Amino acid sequence: MKPGKNRTKYRTILSLILSVIFILSLTACGEEKERVIKSEGMSMVLSKEYQESTLANATWYYTSPDGLAMGIKSSKDDIEKSGLEVSSVQDYAEAYIKANSIPGSPKVRTRNGYAYFQYTRKVSGTDYSYYSCIYDHGDYYWLVTFACYKELYNEYKPDFVASSNSVTFED
After folding, report:
1. pTM of the complete model
2. Which pLDDT tens digit goes with each residue over 87-97?
3. Cβ(46)–Cβ(163) below 8 Å
């Protein structure tokens, strides 16, 4: 065989190998990093790092290596029967803060049709930061809470906000 043919053969094989590597790298980069979770008529986009788990009294609960996300669906009738006067997401958020002795009297704000508040709490000697949202859907209020280690909060907060903004309900 002539040296030129070997060089052409080598280039062809190298080209094929590089093409396969390139295609595989595109596939890996295109992997979904988020998924839609659904529970009792509520949907939300959540990072794939969260894994479904269980927690007593939570309608849904997901954990990640650095934190958690959970949702609690509460009937407006049950809230009224408990003696709380709640007529808005703002009222529900304030009642929740008071009933759970949340430290620092967090300020309740509104965004995109829901109320939210942020706070930090020490649990078993570790500081966690929380981002909690309240949604009004028909006969129910939904509380959606995200939490992570306090030192990671500024890194994760944009993801918490994006997930909170993605919440939708079936009619």
Report:
1. 0.78
2. 899 999 999 99
3. yes
Longest CA–CA separation in the chain, Å: 93
The alpha carbon dihedral of 54, 58, 59, 60 has a sign of negative
Separation of alpha carbons 102 and 8, rounded Å? 72
In the chain, DSSP finds a helix count (H) and a strand count (E) of 4, 10
Q: Give every strand in the sheet of 60-64, ordered side by side.
A: 51-53, 60-64, 67-75, 140-149, 126-137, 114-123, 109-111
Contacts of 113 (CB under 8 A, 6+ apart): 135
CA 144 to chain centre: 9
Contact 39, 71 (CB under 8 A): yes
Q: What are 17-43's pLDDT values in tens digits? A: 444 344 444 334 445 688 898 999 999
